[in-house]
Amino acid sequence: MEVEGSITLRVLLIALVIVGVGVVATGIVTEPKFSLWLIPLWAVKAIWSYYRRHNCNVSVQFCIAIGILAALEVFFGRFLVSSMTSGWL
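RE: above sequence
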């Protein structure tokens, strides 16, 4: 069995990630409108990455990196605002 092409391994991984994303979405995210989008978007990403796994995808990786940087900026901005209002910093 080739590991890269293993459908069983990918299905098990998808199930584990969906459970993990569901736990994070319901436990940490306070706004349900964002948590409802996490699992369907991740499933679309998993299907897309399975079909494109042998391609280079440099532009997609660049866009993902920009998105991660934007999410980090929002996270740290909210963190600093909440820590300043609570007197923690």
